[in-house]
Specification:
With about 150 residues, this protein is an alpha/beta fold. The protein has a single domain, classed as Nuclear Transport Factor 2, Chain: A (Roll). The protein has 5 helices and 7 strands; from the N terminus they run βααββαββββαα. Strands 1-4-5-6-7-2-3 form a 7-stranded mixed β-sheet. A hairpin with a 3-residue loop joins strand 4 and strand 5. The longest helix has 14 residues.
């Protein structure tokens, strides 16, 4: 991943924080829970398409459950745009295959705001690849995508 910093050097505190953020999420088993306090503030607010988390304790619980439920997810950051107090990162998440299907891939964007640590994170992504595996909803979504030519 290449960090693009329009007004910052690659050695700026913001760029350094975003590199630590990226490493934290790409390598979730490498002692990441202890590194959480180095990256996020105590009152971190995380917004996703399915929930809103407030506080580092809620984030710790969420990350622990996510890593258990997703069975070794592979998150790969593709690109980043880092400003003085915010950054946007594009990424791809590959999940474990289910019932003989191929591993679903979810592409998304993350917007973070920070001072010395991240105090706001918003993740935007499309849940369709996950919903397509559901027994009742999946066939409907796949038919709709075919109709739209997607």
């Amino acid at each position: 991943m290449e960090l693009t910093t329009p007004s910052l050097s690659l050695d700026s505190p913001g760029a350094f924080l975003i590199r630590r953020f990226r490493d934290f999420h790409e390598n979730p088993t490498s002692g990441s829970q202890s590194r959480l306090e180095e990256i996020y503030t105590q009152d971190i607010e995380v917004v996703t398409p399915v929930q809103r988390l407030t506080g580092s304790l809620a984030l710790k619980k969420y990350l622990k459950l996510r890593n258990i439920k997703l069975q070794e997810p592979r998150l790969r950051f593709l690109d980043a745009l880092v400003g003085e107090h915010c950054a946007w990162l594009s990424w791809e998440l590959e999940l474990a295959p289910t019932r003989g299907s191929t591993a679903p891939r979810i592409r998304g964007m993350t917007h973070v705001k920070f001072t010395t640590r991240i105090y706001y994170q918003e993740d935007c992504y499309d849940l369709t690849p996950l919903l397509e595996d559901l027994p009742l909803l999946g066939p409907l979504l796949r038919a709709r995508k075919r109709r739209l030519g997607l």
